[in-house]
Amino acid sequence: MSDATTATDPARALLAPGDASPGSPLRYWLLMGCLGLTLGLSGCARRYVITLSNSDTLIATTKPKSDGQGWYVFKDANGQETRVKELRVIQIEAK
Length: 95
What we know:
Blueprint: H1 3-8, H2 10-15, H3 24-42, E1 48-52, E2 57-60, E3 65-66, E4 71-75, E5 81-85, E6 89-94
């Protein structure tokens, strides 16, 4: 690939930090930063599906934890702390 093609190719200008066009190192690092931020935040969006003995399902935004007194405690999809009897829970699945 010649230098003339590199300077006019938009995809190359975004991804090539050594490109001669002005500002391309900044675009490269912004793109890499956005990609890293996207990948980093996607791990925080984990949800848990809790299946109950009556076939109802609940969505938890935090990992359900036993409180040691027979209850699972977690935050639901609305951000409210919720408690469910451990005996009612059939399955907890991370999504």
